[in-house]
Amino acid sequence: MSRYRVASVHKLLRNIVGINTTNITSLARVPAVHGLVRHGFLQPWSFSPLRFCCGNHIPNINPVALQMIDYALGLVRSNKTDESYAEALLVLEQGLYSQSQQGTDAATIETTKGIVLLAISSLLSERGNTDEAMRPLLMIQDLTSSSLGVRVAAMEALVGLNLELGLDDTSSVLADKCLKLLEHEGLETGDECGYKVFSARSKAIKGLVELVHGDIESAKVFFEGCQDENCIGNASLSYGEFLHAKRDFNAAKELYQKAIAESSEKKDFSDPYDFGACNMSLQDVLLAATCALGQLESHLGNFSDAEELMSKALKKAEEHFGTHHPKVGTVLTCIALMYQQKSTAERSSSLLIQEGLYRKAIGLLKAPALETDDAEANLEHVREDVDKRDIVALARGGYGDVLCVQQKRNVEGERMKKWAEVWWRNRRLSLAEALDMSESSSKVMVVDTRICRAL
Questions:
Q1: Which of 297, 330, 337, 427 has the largest CB neighbor count within 10 A?
Q2: Confidence label for 129 from pLDDT (cuts 50, 70 and 90)
Q3: What distance in Å separates the CA atoms of residue 392 and residue 361, rounded to the nearest whole number?
């Protein structure tokens, strides 16, 4: 992402209140949905708002808007072409525009608008337009009559996107805003159960930020409130990663399995307590929890289970994002690390498999070429434009280890490892500790595929 575009988004972040939501509807006059209604894909606009059965305090939502979201997301995920992506955005923009024409109450209109904006943001994020994906999320902050679940989901996604970009300080500020949002709302929502869920989610996203910062003790303070039935979705996954990093494998495994089971039973925007967007969406939770559980089984030495789980994660990533997406490269890096650990534990060799996985992962992650022996200079040259640095460093460092085992390629391997060590930025453990596959290692690393960071 260019410096200009990053600056543009940061300006929006600094002015988080005062954003005009009409900007995103510039194409709304295109009658993208008329044919869908005519051919029966969508029901007529005269339908009354949908009332969720999970609580009287959840605002109504226009059911046609939900149908349009289902259609748009299904279109993109079935075809994954530029044309289907453009059509899906037009459908969602039309759905957003149409809400201002409804004669229902403000809470219904703004909650429905918020859900459509979450869906728009998710599509933009999946296509790699991270800075553009932030704009709909920022717009939601103006929808003060929308449900608390929509606003928490937007803040959660903003934190997630900034973590993926490596903008950790901004992520911390946004996570604090999410906590303050809950403090401001208090129990005035009239939905005590929902408030507890949203409170757990806001604490968990702050805990994840602290975990990325490498501060286990600070993270513990926030995850202590995520230990009951209110811990769902992203909160369950993040808490599991915290326990995983602390080597509490059994408790972490239960939370991963819980996140997988819950995510598998739902579809996008079906649960008003568990709305999600961008890299915090339902599909991302399912992918990340599956991959994390695979890593955990590898750390336990259950390599057959680990291989099965990571194969599932790879399939999910390819189906959801496409075979050339960087997140596929992130999962491949985890699989390569698993084979490396297996080889160490079983004193076997799978060098060709590991090398092939690392090479493909590095290509998908769009890692900069090793054009110079001066890794510091190489890093400084591209610092502003590179995200997923943790995973790039892991892939290059692991690949370097594989090459160093081969006598004729030792020099190449050492050069690659030196480059990776300069790029590594994790504050809790060194690259050598992250790549240490021995059973005696006191620290364990967890890769979070939602944010493409090493925890």
A1: 330
A2: confident
A3: 8
What would the two tokens of residue 438 be?
């021995």
CA angle 399, 402, 404 (to 5 degrees): 110
CA–CA gap between residue 247 and residue 215 (Å, rounded): 15
DSSP string, 49-84: PBPPTT-TTSPPB-HHHHHHHHHHHHHHHHH--HHH
The secondary structure of 332-370, three-state, reads HHHHHHHHHHHHHHHCCCCHHHHHHHHHHHHHHCCCCCC
**H or E element: which one contains 25?**
none
Q: Using DSSP bridges, classify how beta strands 447-448 and 453-454 pair: parallel, antiparallel or unpaired.
A: antiparallel
Q: Which of 82, 241, 89, 274 is nearest to 163 (CA)?
A: 241
HEC string of 126-192 equals: HCCCHHHHHHHHHHHCCCCCCCHHHHHHHHHHHHHHHHHCCCHHHHHHHHHHHHHHHHHHHHHHCCH
Q: Convert the pLDDT of each residue in 270-296 to its tens digit.
A: 777 888 899 999 999 999 999 999 999
Predicted confidence at residue 438, as pLDDT, reads 67
Q: What is the pLDDT of residues 436-450, one digit of tens each?
A: 876 667 789 999 999
Q: How far apart are the first and last CA of the chain?
A: 23
Q: What single letter denotes the amino acid at residue 54? A: C
Residue 420's nearest CA partner among 331, 360, 340, 358 is: 358
Tokens of 70: 């289902």
405 — pLDDT class (breaks 50, 70, 90): confident
Bridge partner residues of 448 (DSSP): 453
The answer to whether the beta carbons of residues 72 and 124 sit under 8 Å apart is no
Per-residue confidence (pLDDT) for residue 191, from 0 to 100: 65
Distance between CA atoms of residues 4 and 178, nearest Å: 27
Q: Which two tokens stand for residue 222?
A: 């926030």
Question: Between the CA of residue 344 and those of 130, 266, 349, 363, 421, what are the distances in Å?
Answer: 38, 39, 8, 25, 21
Question: What is the model's pLDDT at position 388?
Answer: 85
pLDDT of 340-389, one tens digit each?
888 888 877 778 888 899 999 999 998 887 765 455 555 554 444 457 88
Let me know: does 278 contact 160? Beta carbons within 8 Å.
yes
Q: What is the DSSP letter of 327?
A: H
Can you spell out the DSSP letters for 193-235?
A: HHHHHHHHHHHHHHHHHHHHTT-HHHHHHHHTT--STT--HHH
